[in-house]
Task: structure prediction
Amino acid sequence: MSDQFFTKEWERWCWTLEKLVIHGQKRLKGEVTVSGAKNAAVAILPAAILSDGHCTIENIPDILDISILKNILTNLGARIEHLNDSSIRIDTSKVNSYTATDKQIGNLRASYYLMGALLGRFKKAVVTFPGGCDFGVRPIDQHIKGFEALGAKVEIEHGKVIINANKLIGAPIYLDVVSVGATINIMLAAVKAEGITTIENPAKEPHIVDLANFLNAMGADIKGAGTDVIKIRGVRELKGGHVYTIIPDQIEAGTFMIAAAATRGDVLVKNIIPKHMESLTAKLMEMNVRVQEYDDSIRVSSKDKIQNVNIKTLPYPGFPTDLHPPVTALLCRAEGTSIITEGVWDNRFQYVDELKRMGAKIKVEGRMAVIDGSVRLTGAPIRALDLRAGAAMVIAGLMARGETTVSNIHYIDRGYEKLDEKLRALGADIQRIQE
Ligand code: EPU
Result:
């Protein structure tokens, strides 16, 4: 599909003013199947560039960020064939450009993975400076530090990151902050470098491990993903020809678990890896929510009052920052006062003002929010200010008395596959309307 098509698609999403209309206080009941992980898919698709062949990738979520990414890869010369709703065959043998500066790239945070992938393949990359959700400063200094350690020269000019290397040589790299994006980008750039790269203090998120598994399936030699040190022994080439299935989305799963608890519901969340959910499971149990784990599903039910808890978000295996806004909505119905401390992003509390329109009593002090659970939420017109804030608005709407309209829902569509449809199937009164 053409660049023009996707630019129009993006603009349609942003400007058609679709809204979600929710009539709250319906208990969610039934089963829901979680889609493939967004944050794994946005790394694995660019990683395919590192091979000179084709591969099949399954369990790709049908979300806006992936549509944009597929288009960017097509513009670089990749051939993408859709095998079904969630599987593609991607042939990267004809990728012939190291320049990714399409208009859409600035809309997509994960476009920064093109830096590592193009650098790994061509020893050069020119990529528009990444955009994405706004919750404070989003530097890329650790990505740059990693590329430079491997021997590349990095310049930023006219809103583009320009990277050049004669050759990439493995090196020890210590990350000053735990960064998902920098860990992934260094893995992408180092996988075909000469010699050994070690990443110390890396991120350990499930999608880091998933990317390493994908690269290893193509012939890479990566050990230690998910631990304190990742060791990458460079290989000459990566082969295609394999079939890879992306892991389930930890954050989508968590969003449904929280929504079930928030509506006093009873929901079996299927196609998940319960181990990835441990930090949330522990907190829900502390809140007096019933959580039963099975092999690849979790049942969440709640009839009683929710107990107040304190939560601090941290890199994995800590409580995920991306579940912070949804869990804040849930804590609006807890007994007593809860405290959420944001340990990853500088400024992730903008959405609180939207919850206040619904009557929420939340006080934000720096990186901390104090949530008083003594008020019941009432429906109001509110906005999704970013992807996970959008999920929080929907959960608040499901909890509230009366009608809630959520606008700016293109943010939600960026990262949740058919959230409204899935919730409707669980009994929510939620409709998507066009204004
Ligand atoms: N940081 C730096 N320098 C860097 C990179 C990051 O100081 O070079 C700091 C950031 O400012 C932040 C912290 O390190 O304070 C963590 O940032 P990280 O690099 O881990 O975040 P990211 O890679 O940009 C990914 C997810 C986010 C998720 C964070 C944290 C993707 C595409 N995005 O972002 O997911 O919040 O990790 O887990 O994987 C979302 O899905 O809604 C989302 C925003």
Notes: Residues 421 and 430 are 8 Å apart (CA to CA). The radius of gyration is 21 Å. The mean pLDDT is 94.
